[in-house]
Amino acid sequence: MAASGDLAVPRVVEAALPAIAAREGFTRPGFHVESGSNDGDGYMSVMYCIRVQNEDGDKDALHLVSKVTTPSAEGAPMMSRMFAAEGSVYSQLLPAMEEIAGMRAPLPWPRSYHVAVTGPPPHCLVLRDLRPDGFAMVDRKKPLDLQHCRLMLRAIARFHGAGMALQHLRPDAFRAMRDALGADLAAVEETANNFMRFLAPGQAVPDLVRCRFGEVVYAKLKDMFTNIPNEFLDFMLPDPEGGNTIVHGDFHLNNILYQYEKDTGAVQDCVLIDFQMARYGCPASDLLPMLMAFTDKALRDEHWQGLLRGYHDELQATLRAAGCEDPDAIYSWERLTVTVSSYSYKLGLSWLGVA
């Protein structure tokens, strides 16, 4: 394998690259490898950026990014399960969603070129690197503006809607893909317990406001915050009233990329990345963390209903594109608003300590 650059990729990636290059029409490929992550960036994987190009330069380069498991992740059952779940999303779920909803490029997620999540570690994913196309992470220090919110909600609506269509039209195939994610009750409980260390500071909120609001308010808050572990677990489980689908499960600014116009810097598109925590659940569990934690109050006060309506319209358009004749029977506006109202209270309490 012809390679350049000072960095060597793990053998599991090296073995995959010639076949990827051949499938994409490269006849004399060279591979340039650079690091895609810094020390401490990831607890589960390391990243490599790879440029594939014919040695005589007669074909446009293909830009790839590879995620490879770390030894620490390979020794942790939960981390191994999460990496395998992401492999299942890229190899089975997303292609099935694209097919059933008739999705064409540009897709709301990166294209997958290779998935190796079984057999001896290390394991790897090879995906399209979207950075040369103008995609980047948004500045987390600034709240999302209206256009960023609309694009983000359009991407997650297409993901949710395609999952609902798959569940409605091909229930047996959907069930197998859902089960392949491994997110049964025990797995969800384990994940929720791991999140408790981030939510623990919220337990101090009643004491912080006790002097200002008095004993009656303090007692009520103390009771509410005592129930945070149960409330948070409920938030991660499917809604018993229905309207569930495959959710991203870790939907925040680190796990989406925005595309910006080269000359003006205007935001144009949004894609979802990092599906390690994908599971069967309530769509509100994706929507609310993003809308409540990464927007400001002024935007929410003015545009909350419009943003939710835009999300719901896009989800139903995806259902119709898949051939679902009655989208309201699958996921109505009323179901969305009821779950958002119910879950926003639970999520708001849970995240007070994090914020």
UniProtKB/TrEMBL annotation:
TM region(s), chain numbering: none
Annotated CHK kinase-like domain residues: 125-321
One Pfam family named in its UniProt record: EcKL
PANTHER family: PROTEIN KINASE-LIKE DOMAIN-CONTAINING
Name by which UniProt lists this protein: CHK kinase-like domain-containing protein
Species per Swiss-Prot/TrEMBL record: Megalurothrips usitatus
